[in-house]
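Need tokens for this chain, all 367 residues.
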Amino acid sequence: MITRRLHTHTVGVLFVLLSWVCMFVKSEGNNTDTEPTECGNVNGDLFFNRCFYKPSNTFLMLMANNIVQWVNPRTLAITTLSMCLCLPALLILNNHSSWYFEVRRKFHATRLVLIHFLYRISYSLVLDVALYAVFRQRRPCACMTNYSRYGMPSGDAMAAGILGGYLLDKAPFFKWATRFMGLLLIASVCFERVILGYHSVGQVMAGASIGVILHFYATRVPQYFLFLDAIIQWILGAVMLHIDKSLVYTPNDSNNLWAWFLWGVSFQIFALLMLLKHFKQGNGGRRMLRYNVYSMDSSALVPSEIDHLLLNSEMQSQSQRRSESEDRKLLQDSDIIFMLVCLVFLLGINFVSQLSQYYGWLVTTTS
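Here are the structure tokens for all 367 residues:
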């Protein structure tokens, strides 16, 4: 019980810190070179479709430009990845400690939460771009010509829905304050996207709703479902982005949706590889993929079988390590080598996405 509470508080602190870090990291491309005095409505005059961009309203613009620093999908993905890379420091700093065994258990539990969150936040980088090409609804403001063509659903609102959904669902400490923070986070990002003219009210409502639903879906289904839905996302995005003839880019176009899609896929692949490695040895084996991540830290869901599997795994790991050196034990427990290999693979796909943007690979470009 004490271990579960310590783990819950640790994860809660990490995600609150994640929220605050995102407040101070500005998202890319949020400033335009020119400030138009008015914008036409691309999708009609209905409330849910119209453009609310009013540069003359200085107060609302200042509020929105301050909120824009809070959350965006790329910042959340990079920050979560950085947490995964820094987490082995817990083991390194306590390598010779008498309570190393307890630290190791907390390390694996926390890493599992971060891996799952990284996969969920990747929905706003991969699934969102694929849905752009499915709905094909333009951004609401005619004057916003320096941004991607489509805006349904909002990727930033989806990311806010995923992070806000976690805070609403888990609320690891100060429950009402944490849940209020989750609601405020979602509402603030939706407000910012609408006021700055990047999305309509309907687009942010759709994005935030999908984000919250995806959080509850991904944490309640068996973990092997994530591998299946990743394949569906990749096929959907690859097909829809290439059959849309209206997607024509200029060379080195920063709004190349195919490059965005590849960039997000790299994070999903990293998360899935780390998830496979997590359950390969020492954490119950691959059979644990039959359970959802929500049950992994809840004694109310299949506790006897999970505890039995984990206990047997821990006993086997202890007997093997009696004859191993401390350095090898540390490498095996932290999976540093495998994680670095996955990181190199991620960076390689990132580089391919940049090449695709620069040279226009697999997309239609203007002459």
